[in-house]
Amino acid sequence: MSHAAAAPVQAPSRAGRKQWTGLAVLIIAVLLVSLDMQVLSYALPFLSAELDPSSAQLLWIVNIYPFVLAGLLLTMGALGDRIGHKRLLMSGAVVFGAASVVASLASGPAMLIASRALLGLGGATLMPSTLSLIRTMFRDDGQRRIAIAVWTGAFAGGAILGPLLGGVLLEHFWWGSVFLVNLPVMVLLLILGSLLLPEFKAAEPARFDLFSAALSLAAVLPAVYGIQRIAEDGPGAVPVAAIAAGLAVGWYFLRRQRALAEPLLDVRLFRDRAFSASVATSVLAIFSLVGSGLFTAQYLQMVLGFSPLRAGLWALPAAGAALVSSGLAPVLARFVRPGVVVTCGLVVGALGYGVLAQMHADSGVGMLVTGIVVMSAGITLVMTITSDLVIATAPPDRAGSVSGLSQTATEFGGAFGVAILGSIGTAVYRDDIAGRVPADLPREAVRSARDTLGGAVEASRHLPARTGDELLTAAREAFAHGLRAASWTAAGLLLLMAVVSLVLLRHTRGASPEPSAAPATTGAAGAADADGDEAPAVPGRS
């Protein structure tokens, strides 16, 4: 009597030269989307002079890109699972490139706002597609960690280097160059991506639920809008109502997902402690990274008086620290549990904020850069490990929706960082400056100075030299006081999260893609194997 031998479970195939070259193509997309979040910051004065937007239009020019990006990430990730992530990436590159050209040639605020919205649409297709393809191309644990480390380093480095690129372009070209620089990069992505990237989509894609997609957009957009408004103008009826509306729609969205047989977002993933803890930690990490940038740019330009280009150059050490830290993460993950690495990264990030909490108006650039470098190193370490945990935990056929969820959480973290830390800094600044303003200031100058540091700098230019210097000194010290208060807040939150992460991730070793004994059925194209040929997709958990 013969017995059929059990088929051995094959180890995941290792990526080869084609996959690593394809990773470089994906990094192009990540770097560009990350750069575009910050590159506009120094161009605003030039935009204002050329297009003469109202204050409301200027806010929409700045905010419409992250609003649309955040609102569509989850939907686009799920769409990629259905139609293919390479196809979605290529389509997004076309939209992003075309929108960049239109934005660079904008003749009025409305045209620029519309083109920035299209840029957000393109960015929303690019970000989840890159992470999903990494999940597909690198099925070996160690190689995937390295690939995600490179991805995280590019994302963090792009966010830090965006102002530098903007400063360089504005030194030599007109404001539209900050958009037009995207075009050759998108062309390169289209050419190389078509040759080097594999296609992947779910073996049995779920029905795309348009109503759930609309609900996710209706939940994210008003919530992000409300958070941004609070960051800019303080609490008010409109932003609070917007956040409440977003939360209400979000609650209904999650309730609907639990009831659907084929949900847009599988909420059962949150039962996995490692997944939930990783998403929450990622939110706080980007909260800290983006929140610090709000104060760094103002300190360099309005306290130290640096030009945009010089201020951008001082961001290079932090970008270097982010790259080194992201490269160190996969090495540490080979020998140390992820929970320990994440906890150490959060503690290092808190130490960086501890340095920033010692800043005064006359502290100088050395202390500021030291704090930002230490903080960036710790936070990038955290982001690298948690990104890997989120993606590795996800079933392969839902990699797109999970990537979209991860990036949506990142956008919320950045918005909360600006809103909460910005609000703390602003409240302390306004309270502090009220007791420092010179007594003989004109009423309008007092009003401007009490509003923002930028208002104080502008008001000082129209005052006698001695009075203007006194106002600047008072405003700069009040701003430094706000920076210290916000830094202590961020440091405390990071230390609290370090304890939570150590507890929740204490048994986590890093999820592994599930090996498959049989290839997927028709309808899925898998990751390329080590020789560059396409391997079948692995069906994921339902």
Main β-sheet description? none
CATH superfamily of the largest domain: MFS general substrate transporter like domains
* Proper CATH architecture of the largest domain: Up-down Bundle
Number of helical segments with 4 or more residues: 19
CATH class of the largest domain: Mainly Alpha
Helix content: over 70%
CATH topology of the largest domain: Growth Hormone, Chain: A
Low-confidence stretches: 1-9, 511-542
Number of strand elements:
0
Mean pLDDT: 76
N-C termini distance: 37 Å
Topology of this structure?
Elements: H1 17-38, H2 44-51, H3 55-83, H4 85-104, H5 109-137, H6 141-172, H7 177-180, H8 182-196, H9 210-233, H10 237-259, H11 273-303, H12 308-313, H13 316-333, H14 338-356, H15 365-393, H16 399-434, H17 443-451, H18 453-460, H19 465-504
Helix pairs in contact: 1-5, 1-6, 1-8, 3-4, 3-5, 3-9, 3-16, 4-5, 4-8, 5-6, 5-16, 6-13, 6-15, 9-10, 9-16, 11-15, 11-16, 11-19, 13-15, 14-15, 14-19, 16-19, 17-18, 18-19
